[in-house]
Design goal:
The protein is α/β, with parallel strands linked by helices. It has two domains: 175 residues, 3-Layer(aba) Sandwich (Rossmann fold), CATH 3.40.50.1950; 213 residues, CoaB-like (Rossmann fold, 3-Layer(aba) Sandwich), CATH 3.40.50. 34% of the residues lie in helices and 25% in strands. The strands form six sheets. The chain has an eight-stranded mixed beta sheet, with helices on both faces. Strand 1, helix 1 and strand 2 form a beta-alpha-beta unit. It is elongated, with a radius of gyration of 25 Å. The model has no long low-confidence stretch (mean pLDDT 91). The chain binds flavin mononucleotide. The site of flavin mononucleotide has 17 residues, from helix 2 and helix 6.
Length: 404
């Protein structure tokens, strides 16, 4: 689970400084304790008061002034260095990057950086020429060699009225990456393939048959698996969800697309975990009209004949056997009635290790909600009823049973 929840944000004097406020707001929503250290130059851009108000904690700027030499245990930068589980410089100027790469310690940010054992991250933000300059690139390489993670800047609008590389990474991505570093990595070295979302089964070029799956459950599993150190591939049907940072995503439309994507993802593996959280259509239109079906060409009614889609889980398990892939498959069952009975029947039929059964007849859980109340049904008949919880907690409960 979480190895800590203390994040120290180091703030330096970039025009992107306001993004640090956004990152802190996002982290606060995730129940993470946050403290801030700023360079003196940064305080000329935004007052420390703003960060103090946002974090309910004092901001460290002048380490000498704050040092209380009556109490040895109160050496500010050492206490701060010990407190932090993750230390992230957001935004990181070329100057602070150079200092960190060369062991300088003449400001609160670089001083704590040198003193802490925390996971270290920098999110560079600067003009393109400054970013691509050999000096900056060499310094970033050095930081990587020291164990820092770099959240690469992106191509975008820069403060100097130009466009190019150097625009700070997206705040959602920065917050996501920082949070990921707060977790233990028990799934490190494991390949986990997760399907998520609905499928679209095309009727003609503009119409399709789909279902109410939002993809939230599968995306939550992908996120937690990534946080827990797995090598994750998310095979996603069409959803409106944000693509999670650092996770390989394969976008698919139909059930057949999804099947091919899963096969492709596991075919070269010796072993893999497959978590089938997608709501795959059982049927698809028997005939696809390659031109839009016109109302005037129909009578007052329209009949769409359907044919069965392949059963993804069963087909993939057979494919895995044929290709000598040791597959640990977990299924999901969305049922509106006889939940446990219907879910249990699927375990043997589809070759699952266990199945996660959820009741989609309830409006407060299941499709398109943030919470879920599931039962985990094992192949030996054991049924574990979990209480109602956030989908990320359900994801964690599922993933920790992979080890068992
Ligand atoms: C308006 C303004 C915006 C700046 N934006 C950046 C920036 O985005 N990235 C950067 O590396 N330096 C930027 N600088 C230059 C730094 O502020 C300068 O190098 C400063 O000494 C960095 O101090 P620090 O790294 O101790 O915070 C900017 C300067 C000004 C005046």
């Amino acid at each position: 689970m979480k190895k800590g929840s203390n994040v120290l944000i180091g703030v330096s004097a970039s025009i992107a400084i306001y993004k640090a406020l956004e990152v802190i707001s996002l982290l606060k929503k995730r129940d993470i304790s946050i403290k801030v250290a700023m360079t003196k130059e940064a305080t000329g851009f935004i007052s420390p008061v703003v960060f103090e108000a946002l974090t309910n904690s004092r901001v460290y700027v002048d380490v000498l002034e704050e040092f209380d030499n009556k109490d040895d245990t109160n050496i500010t930068h050492i206490a701060l260095a010990k407190w932090a589980d993750v230390f992230a410089v957001v935004p990181a100027t070329s100057n602070i990057i150079a200092k960190l790469a060369n062991g300088f310690s003449d400001d609160a940010v670089s001083l704590v950086a040198l003193a802490t054992d925390a996971e270290k991250i920098v999110a560079p933000a600067m003009n393109s020429n400054m970013y691509t300059h050999k000096a900056t690139q060499e310094n970033l390489k050095k930081l990587e060699a020291f164990g820092y993670s770099i959240i690469e800047p992106v191509d975008g609008n820069l403060a100097c009225n130009t466009k190019g590389i150097g625009h700070i990474a997206d705040v959602e991505d920065i917050a996501f990456f920082i949070e990921s570093k707060l977790y233990d990595k028990p799934l490190s070295g494991k390949k986990i393939v997760i399907t998520a979302g609905p499928t679209n089964e095309a009727v003609d070029p503009v119409r399709y048959i789909t279902n109410r799956s939002s993809g939230k459950m599968g995306y939550a599993v992908a996120k937690m698996a990534y946080f827990m150190g797995a090598d994750v591939t998310l095979i996603s049907g069409p959803t409106h969800l944000r693509q999670p940072y650092g996770i390989k995503i394969v976008k698919t439309e139909s059930a057949v697309d999804m099947l091919e994507a899963v096969k492709n993802e596991i075919k070269n593996e010796k072993e893999a975990v497959l978590i089938m959280a997608a709501a795959v259509a059982d049927f698809k239109p028997k005939h696809y009209a390659d031109k839009k079906i016109k109302k005037q060409d129909l009578d007052s009614s329209m009949v769409i004949e359907l044919k069965e889609n392949p059963d993804l889980t069963k087909t993939v398990n057979m494919f895995a056997k044929d290709n000598n892939v040791d597959l640990f498959t977990i299924g999901f069952a969305a049922e509106t009635n006889d939940l446990i009975k219907n879910a249990a029947a699927k375990i043997q039929k589809k070759g699952l290790k266990f199945i996660v059964a959820n009741d989609v007849s309830r409006g407060d859980i299941g499709f398109n909600t943030d919470e879920n109340e599931v039962s985990i049904i094992h192949a030996d008949g054991e049924i574990e009823k979990l209480e109602k919880m956030h989908k990320e907690s359900v994801a964690y409960e599922i993933l920790r049973r992979i080890e068992a």
